[in-house]
Amino acid sequence: MKVVNQDEFNKLMKEDAVLVDFFATWCGPCKMLSPLLESMASEYEGRCQFVKVDVDQEPDLAGQFGIMAVPTVILFKNGKQAASFAGYQAKPQVQQWLDSHLA
């Protein structure tokens, strides 16, 4: 999954569906969630784009979306925030959450 900056993020908002993982390099739960999302990115290719934002590198972007805890995952559809969750979730829960919002 690509780590994006503010400019890249803004360009991505033109896509149909983008899942953004707001993370920090020092965050244990982030390190657990990352490989799960990496594996899902290929499974959802063509339906949803997966990217990451490092909250320490992009504090303005994190602030813009009120990120208070990491990891926080936000699904954007057509540039609008459609759904989110914070904290670690197991793959079946993340898949169910994503499927329900992509349908």
Description:
There is one protein chain. The chain is of the alpha/beta class and 103 residues long. It has one domain: Glutaredoxin (3-Layer(aba) Sandwich). The chain has helices at 6-12, 28-43, 59-64, 91-102, and strands at residues 2-3, 17-23, 49-54, 72-77, 80-86. The chain has a five-stranded mixed β-sheet with strand order 1-3-2-4-5. The longest helix has 16 residues, at 28-43. The radius of gyration is 12 Å and the shape is globular.
Give a quick summary of the entry.
Helices cover 40% and strands 27% of the residues.
Number of strands: 5
Overall spatial form: globular
Give unreliable regions as ranges.
Answer: none
Task: Name the CATH architecture.
Answer: 3-Layer(aba) Sandwich
Number of structurally distinct domains: 1
In percent, how helical is the residue content?
A: 25-40%
N-to-C CA distance = 23 Å
What's the main sheet like? 5 strands, mixed
What pattern of helices and strands is seen along the backbone? EHEHEHEEH
CATH class group = Alpha Beta
Residues in β-strands, percent: 25-35%
Q: What name does CATH use for the topology?
A: Glutaredoxin
Q: Can you count the helices?
A: 4
